[in-house]
Amino acid sequence: MLWNKSLETGIPKIDEQHQELFRQADFLVDSSKADRVVATLNFLKDYVTKHFSDEETFHRSSHYPKAEEHKKLHQAFATGYKQKLEEFQKATNKAAAVLTINSMVVNWLKEHIMRHDKEFAVYYIQKKG
Ligand SMILES: [Fe+2]
């Protein structure tokens, strides 16, 4: 799995969900699970939605000043993912399409966690005292 300690925010619920997202993204490129690709793509879609909503609940309840900005980043990802799913459905080379989705998800997650989720975590943990 591509998750590692450097991606830890220090908020256990968020870290557990991030790990699950990386695990699911891994399933996409695990050839032994190839027959489950469509199920995994759908699972990821739902899990991401739930994860974003949980993060946004954290933002609201702690009056995070960048909540709106952060939410927009989540929405942009959700739109991009939906687009990729449509491309996957039309693709003749499903294996290549799945690789594209995997790298899109993994790269976005890494970047987003390192910059935005960690920024929130610092705020949240400080505020909680
Ligand atoms: Fe986030």
Describe this structure in words.
The protein is mainly alpha-helical. The protein has a single domain (11-128), classed as Hemerythrin-like (Four Helix Bundle (Hemerythrin (Met), subunit A)), CATH 1.20.120. It has helices spanning 12-29, 37-61, 67-90, 94-128. α1 (12-29) runs antiparallel to α2 (37-61), α1 runs antiparallel to α4 (94-128) and α3 (67-90) packs antiparallel against α4. The longest helix has 35 residues, at 94-128. The model has no long low-confidence stretch (mean pLDDT 94). Fe (ii) ion binds at residues 55, 70, 74, 112, 116-117. The site of fe (ii) ion (FE2) has 6 residues, from α3 and α4.
Secondary structure elements and their pairing?
Layout (H helix, E strand, L loop, with lengths): L11 H18 L7 H25 L5 H24 L3 H35 L1
Helix pairs in contact: 1-2, 1-4, 2-3, 3-4
CATH topology: Four Helix Bundle (Hemerythrin (Met), subunit A)
Shape: elongated
Name of the CATH first level: Mainly Alpha
- Hetero groups bound? fe (ii) ion
- The percentage of residues in β strands lies in under 5%
- Fourth-level CATH superfamily: Hemerythrin-like
Class derived from helix and strand content: mainly alpha
What count of structural domains?
1
What's the CATH architecture name? Up-down Bundle
Largest sheet: none
Count of DSSP H/I helices: 4
* Mean pLDDT reading: 94
Q: Can you give the helix content as a percent range?
A: over 70%
End-to-end separation in angstroms reads: 32 Å
Secondary-structure element string: HHHH
Uncertain runs: none
For the CA atoms, what is the radius of gyration? Answer: 15 Å
Beta strand count: 0
